[in-house]
Amino acid sequence: MTPITPYPITPWRTVPKDIPRPDYVGGSGPAPYGGPHVQSVETIEKMRIAGRIAAQAMRAAAEAIAPGVTTDEIDRVGHEFLLDHHAYPSTLGYRGFPKSLCTSVNEVICHGIPDTRPLEDGDIVKIDLTAYVDGVHGDNCATYFCGEVDQEAVRLTEVTHEAMMRGIRAVKPGRQVNVIGRVIEKYAARFGYSSVRDYTGHGVHTAFHSGLVIPHYDEPSFDTVIERGMTFTVEPMITTGGYGWQQWDDGWTVVTADGSRCAQFEHTIVVTDSGAEILTVP
Ligand code: MF3
Ligand code: CO
Ligand code: CO
User: Fold this and answer.
1) Most buried residue, 70, 86, 242, 266, by most Cβ within 10 Å?
2) Measured in whole angstroms, how far is the alpha carbon of residue 26 from the centre of its chain?
């Protein structure tokens, strides 16, 4: 499999002035979030809408995946879907990120910038898309196949989806967030796979990344107690090799250190009385 290399990036896509944008856009980064992890009923209701639009936009963008199509074209489709639904693409202008979603192909772990590389038959493509609607974010990611992929890619993708679902099903009020990482890492290890440690799930609501960390590996020191009304992501990145990583000179693209392939899925969830409800559903 040929390693992924950087390709030229197209100019910024514009967003009409009448679509409200997060306050970090145009600045160097968001103001630190100092509010609670538990969200109001009103915020959660808004997040259902943001989550639905994020899921629908991701599905629309994924329909464009085919051999020969550039990741920039996938970005264009996701961008236009969001604008058509009066949503702002949360990544566009987030700490200087130049595109409306992330496309991370094969050994790219996360934060790939959509560019003019044409997708190849056999690529696995992660689309990570976040919608900002009515003051809140809905964040989701999934792994898709370009054309015919090999058996290892199919299994890696299935295992990663199941790992995310097991992490979500482990969510219960009264438990510590480290339970999520424990079940994810242990499930990946059954297949000889590794769960990436240095990129994590996060609190998400009025803030894109609230500061609450949701680990995808077994680390007891992440001991925040889960409470009803908390909203956060579960977004494991699982590789067929190790969890080491390197970053490209673009300051964003994260690749596996050993060149092994990586799959990822992500949902935004809200904690209920008995478990978790997924908000990023189409
Ligand atoms: N959506 C990503 C996440 O799951 C964040 C992407 S930030 C970007 O947290 F700047 F890289 F786009
Ligand atoms: Co995301
Ligand atoms: Co996220």
Assistant:
1) 266
2) 22
Q: List CB-based neighbours of ion ligand 3 within 5 Å.
A: 139, 233
Backbone angles phi, psi at 218, to 5 degrees: -80, 100
Q: Measured from the CA of 111, which atom of ligand 1 is nearest?
A: 11
Q: Which of 97, 78, 87, 86 is nearest to 24 (CA)?
A: 97
Contact between 22 and 90 (Cβ < 8 Å): yes
C-alpha 183/C-alpha 159 separation (Å) is: 12
d(CA 270, CA 268): 7
What is the SS3 assignment for 278? Answer: strand
CA 80 – CA 86 distance, rounded (Å): 10
Task: Assess whether the C-beta atom of 139 lies below 6 angstroms from ligand 1.
Answer: yes
Q: How far apart are CA 281 and CA 99, in angstroms?
A: 23
pTM: 0.98
Please tell me the distance between residue 69's alpha carbon and the centre of ligand 2 in angstroms. Answer: 22
Q: Give the span between the Cα atoms of 239 and 234, in whole angstroms.
A: 16
Cα-to-centroid distance, 129 and ligand 2 (Å): 6
- On whether the CB atoms of residues 39 and 205 are closer than 8 A, the answer is yes
- What percent of the chain is predicted at pLDDT more than 90? 100
Q: Is the CB of 128 under 6 A from ligand 1?
A: yes
Q: pLDDT per residue over 83-135, tens digit each?
A: 999 999 999 999 999 999 999 999 999 999 999 999 999 999 999 999 999 99
